[in-house]
Amino acid sequence: MVGVRTCAALFNRTVVNASFSLWQPKEHIGATVINEPGALCWNELMTSDINGARKFYTGLFGWKLKESPEYTEVHAGDQATGGMMQITEEMKGMSPNWKPYFAASDVDATVKKLQSSGGQVHILTTDIPKVGRFSIVSDPQGASFAVITLSPQ
């Protein structure tokens, strides 16, 4: 545990072999800005065992799931907060992982800025119909994350 007065955090590795942390707010409540440019807007699990992940996380957090063959959308209450996806044969060699998504007002401009700052692009900007435009990137130290410009709802 860290920050006993301000927060409590616990770092875990799940039964589906993806690391994550738990947060219990105390004097420091955590993020107060979400879903805005530059802020966290989504979390996505890539897993080698989608059924095990569904069972584990719904049992742990009580999440509601919206399942399709290709994607599982995660809901905390009525709010969609993330998703889960099976690692496919085309992705062979990928380790299970949670990936944070940060909102960008212009994902293409953000990716150009990232590249000029020493970051790397792993998946070029791509459109997801009815969702937005995203890219999987990493910072100069190798930490991977995604940036996305969400479609207007």
Can you offer a commentary on this structure?
By secondary structure, the chain is mostly beta strands. The protein has a single domain, classed as 2,3-Dihydroxybiphenyl 1,2-Dioxygenase, domain 1 (Roll). It is about 15% helix and about 45% strand. The protein is built from two helices and ten strands. The chain has helices at about 50-60, 105-115; strands at about 5-15, 20-25, 40-45, 65, 70-75, 80-85, 95-105, 120-130, 130-140, 145-150. The strands form two sheets. The chain has an eight-stranded mixed sheet with strand order 4-5-6-3-7-10-9-8. Strands 1-2 form a two-stranded antiparallel ribbon. The longest helix is centred in the middle third of the chain and has 12 residues, at about 50-60. It is globular and about 45 Å long.
